[in-house]
Amino acid sequence: MRTGTSSTLSGLTEIIAQNVLVLEESMENKGINIPSLNDVYDSQLEFHNEEPEVARSIDMICRAALQLIQTVRSSKAILMQTALSHITASALRCASELHIATILYEAGPEGMHVADIAAKCGVDYRKLSSILRCLGKQWIFREISPEVYANNRLSSLLHKGKSYEDLTSDPDTIYDKPEAALSAIVGHMSDEGAKATSYLYEALTDQSFGFSDEADHSAFSLGLQTEKSVWEYFEEPGREDLLDRYAAAMEGLQEIEPPNLAEGAFDWASLPPESVVVDVGGGIGSVPIHIAHKHPEIEFVVQDRPAVIADGVKRWEQRNQAGYIHFEEHDFFEAQPIKNPSVFLLNNVLPDWSDKYAKKILMRLRAAAGPDTRLVTRDTVIPYSCQVPVSDKTLSIPGVVVQQLPQPLDINGPSAFSYDLSLFMTVLFNGMERTLGHMAELLRSSGWEIEKIEEHDAGGHLPSSIICIPLKGWRDPREMVSKYRMSFFG
Ligand SMILES: C[S@@+](CC[C@H](N)C(=O)[O-])C[C@H]1O[C@@H](n2cnc3c(N)ncnc32)[C@H](O)[C@@H]1O
């Protein structure tokens, strides 16, 4: 007779088998071989997660396989390995900063002995050997014969698109090429991100930091020993490399989304010609860059801090693409200078702030909105790690996707990446990614009402666009306070 556990194991195995068939069939229909972890990365050979059926099958396989592993592995070993998981991130940082993927790209399929790699980068050979083996356990680099390494599918993505000679002779331009964007994210997360993360507990339990909403009172402040927020820290003289890497990292975030996802964030074609779309806190314009050339009739204005705008202008001119993007310095905590645009876009901005500050940004936009202005906030909407009760009000929001998992899949699992990202926002800024219920509450209290959501999956793997209209009858509380003061004092 099957016990509970054995039926769980067989159930999970069945889910894997059924969904593997879907993937194999999809690849066969396209005449493409299943990509191997041993070959170098080829975007044509990836499973295409923009196809909903394929994306769902990938999700099912990952969920079932992880649940299977967690079920059968030693519980004590799982906890121990989790406690040591930061070591892999540190190893990844070393490999990326030393440009090992580029060295191996230049070495070709025969690879290179780790002693020669170490000599080229000027580091200890035995230590580098440990680093590469640590990464190899995650299929990042491949030991093709004892101590000889070559690139594989994952490591080859860390090649920054320039020669090793160029990377080392001109460190200011390391992240110039689009191929380097992923390394920029890796660097941001595993360098200043990891240093900050290691102080999460201290920040959480500190008398003044623990309950703070301030961006300059986070684990980042403790880890990096600074009284500045992340943005101010990056802009200090001598940290141009960090600012540059962060800008490239934001572009990289866009790259890991399926192509055309940003384009689907809103029905841009529905806008009349010469409509103005304001990308607030738009960085170097990573979203408009993907849309402007397809909609030259729309005027995109990217607003950000002065140093970021200067970088955005430089990058946009280098690209010399069609379309219209205007870059403008603007602090989103100040009054919004563009009144009544068609769209205010906030892409990956609100998670950087606690509710107190997110509300300030949203209220500035509400005060500048016209009756037909739409607000599009595009972030990860984090799922609950339990079933959403049928009484939950967010279930009636048009476009919401409800998580439906076959038995015996647990709702926990690979959506964990969105939980990691959310906690990372707390570490850096005292911010967070939000659930849909949390977003609805925040938006309403700032004068916005959700019209619909463009949600691609219920697991929070991909960013969702929450499209809002101005909440009717809403009055800016600051305006009411100043009117009250004026009438009180005559
Ligand atoms: C996470 S990034 C997102 C950038 C861009 N929206 C994207 O998705 O690529 C957040 C952006 O907010 C900008 N920012 C931070 N504080 C700001 C402020 N007070 N006013 C305007 N922009 C600000 C940062 O410089 C950064 O470019």
Automatic annotation (TrEMBL):
Residues 80-160 form the O-methyltransferase dimerisation domain. Residues 268-448 form the O-methyltransferase C-terminal domain. InterPro entries: COMT-like, COMT_C, COMT_dimerisation, SAM-dependent_MTases_sf, WH-like_DNA-bd_sf, WH_DNA-bd_sf. It comes from Schizopora paradoxa. This is S-adenosyl-L-methionine-dependent methyltransferase. One of its GO terms (molecular function) is protein dimerization activity. GO terms for biological process: methylation. Keywords: Methyltransferase, S-adenosyl-L-methionine, Transferase.
